[in-house]
Structures are given as C-alpha cells and as structure tokens.
Amino acid sequence: MRWNHYIDLRVAVSNAVRASCKQCGAPIDRGTYRAEAIPVIGKPELLHLDCAAKRAPDHARRKLKDKDPDWPADALEQIARFLPEDATPAPRSYLRTPILDLSYDRSGVAKPCLFCGVDAPGDPGPGFGHAIRAFSADGERRFHPACVIQLAPGIARRVALEDSERWPADVKAFFSAALKEIPPTPRSPWRNTAGIPRMEPSPSARAACRFCQGKIAKGELRLAREQLYGMRRSPAYFHVNCFCKSDDYHSKVIELVVLRLPPEVTREEVAALSRFLPPEPEEDDDVPPLMERLLTLFDAVDRTRKAAEAETPESKLTENVVEIPEGFFQS
C-alpha cells in the first residue's frame, strides 16, 4: 500500500516559470501542465505531471478511472504514461473536505459559487446579494448564502446565534429564518492548534478533551496537537470519538496518526477504533474500507520497526579500567 498525505490532485496550465516542482526541484515551464497536490495538513504543493504520478499515484489513478472532467484529456494522457502499473485508486471521499468555518466576503468581486455556478455576489437579496467564504482542509471557497446553508447548516446557524458585527444584518437574519430547527455546530476543537497530530495512550486521567470537556481515561488512546498561543507549547487533547464526530474529521488524518503510532500501541487497539469511525461512503465501493487500510498501514509500520530492531547489533560493553600510578593522589 503506497501512502501519501494528499487528499486531491488538481491540474492547471503554468502561467510563468517562477514555480519549482516539489518532487524534483526543477522549474515548471510556462505553458505546460502542472499538478497541484493538496495535503490534508499543510500548504498545497506544485508538481510536474510525471512527478505527481510518482508522488501521488493513487490520486492519479482515480483521475484516470473516473475520467475527471476537471482534467483535460491530454493531461490525463500525459499522467497515464508515468503511472505505476500497481497503483490503486484513492477513495473518492478524499476529495470531499469538511467546511470548518464561514466568513463574510467583503471584496465585492463577482466569482462563481462553487455549489451552483452562478456568480456571487449576484442579484440583490439575501440569497444572492452577498458572497460567503467557506474554509476547509484544502483551502477557501465562495458560496451564496442560500447555497452554503445546504452544505454547512450548523455553522450558518452558529453565525446567526453569535450575532457578530462582522456579518451583515440581512445575512444573519436570512440564516436565522432558514435554520430555526438546526442546532449550531460548536466551534472547531482544533482552533489555535497546528502541526501533525499524534495518537498516544493517555498516561493519566488528568487531561480533558478539548471537544467535550470530559476527562480522558488512563490508558485510553487520545489525539494530541500543539497549541499555537502562549509562551509554552503545551498540547491540546481530544477523545478519538470526539474527533471522529467533529467537523474536523478526515479519514486521511486517522491514517496519518496510525503511521506515526508509538510502539506501545497494539494492533488490537487500532482495530478497536472501528467503533468510532463514521460509516464508509457508498461511492468508495472500489477501494478497501478505512479500517482495513488502517490495519495494513499498522502492519507495514510494525514490520519496518521490527526489521530495524533486528538489524541493530547488540551493544557489547567493555569494562573501562584505568590504572592509576601509585602515589598519584598523594601530595
């Protein structure tokens, strides 16, 4: 199983020669196709198409299998020439990233809404007279207020209840009237945290979960991530269950933390995570289930760790004897 940290591959024609390929370091020529690899954590990376096929073969295979309409036919033909024969397609669910927060777009420049394709802002009215910025793991998107409530109703309801002055009154009133029965989504528990999360057994029962505020039992697997504020970088902790039901959940993050598990975590503990994972999307019927992929990753890491331990020669300590001349310490 070839694992990478990307959730999508996009393609565009390079408009300049300023960018360099993240894989080989060579410049990407103007007028040629370049791939933009979107990682689950971190900034997008630009790649030559042949380098993208080597770096993210599963996403390239998915584009070819689905004949992605966002990819020109000649770009698909180019990347197919460099794709390894054993590459398996990535899950389609990788291409869907959760909306983590909303903000009002004050630019006033009309751009297409990602949901309906009509320019936003467009016609007057609460549905089309404004544009909303939606933030997700793979960047920022623009929507009409009427469109974004279909994609993130809980966050839109939260905007109405918080009644911030940064939002226009008619947009807040529109959200409030359209979403009376929708409970607000809590603010992201990962706010003000950064870096790659890690999964570890809790050494005590003192830490509280940032999401539910409940204590994390001793020995229970928890997620930890560094906080951004304060003079001392202390981590924030989460129940695995709380992370899986939050808007921050992404299956790629779970795969990432399994790859970085400490040696004391067992295969049985990884298998027990199945009770927390959301249902698998029906559209991913051509790839192994998430739990199967997690156990495959765990086994690969475990084999590598055991092989490294077997190759490490045992240290042979020798007695260090120092002969001190007679009378050396006498004055």
Please give a quick description of this structure.
By secondary structure, the chain is α+β, with helices and mostly antiparallel strands. The chain is built from ten helices and eleven strands.
Helix and strand topology:
Blueprint: E1 6-13, E2 33-39, E3 45-48, H1 49-55, H2 57-66, H3 73-82, E4 99-104, E5 111-112, E6 119-120, E7 132-136, E8 139-143, H4 145-151, H5 153-162, H6 169-178, E9 193-201, E10 221-227, E11 235-239, H7 240-244, H8 251-259, H9 267-271, H10 290-311
Antiparallel strand pairs: 1-2, 2-3, 4-7, 5-6, 7-8, 9-10, 10-11
Helix pairs in contact: 1-2, 1-3, 2-3, 4-5, 5-6, 8-10
Unreliable stretches (pLDDT < 50, length at least 5) are: none
CATH superfamily of the largest domain: Zinc finger, PARP-type
Structural class: alpha+beta
The overall number of domains is 3
Arithmetic mean pLDDT:
90
- End-to-end Cα distance, whole Å, is 71 Å
Tell me the CATH topology of the largest domain. first zn-finger domain of poly(adp-ribose) polymerase-1
Characterize the main sheet.
3 strands, antiparallel
- Indicate the CATH architecture of the largest domain: 2-Layer Sandwich
> Strands of the biggest beta sheet: in what spatial order?
1-2-3
Structure, explained:
The structure is a single chain. The chain is an alpha+beta fold and 331 residues long. It has three domains: 6-90, Zinc finger, PARP-type (first zn-finger domain of poly(adp-ribose) polymerase-1), CATH 3.30.1740.10; 95-178; 193-303, Zinc finger, PARP-type (first zn-finger domain of poly(adp-ribose) polymerase-1). It contains ten helices and eleven strands. The chain has helices spanning 49-55, 57-66, 73-82, 145-151, 153-162, 169-178, 240-244, 251-259, 267-271, 290-311; strands at 6-13, 33-39, 45-48, 99-104, 111-112, 119-120, 132-136, 139-143, 193-201, 221-227, 235-239. The strands form four sheets. Strands 1-2-3 form a three-stranded antiparallel beta sheet. Strands 4-7-8 form a three-stranded antiparallel beta sheet. It has a three-stranded antiparallel beta sheet with strand order 9-10-11. The longest helix has 22 residues, at 290-311.
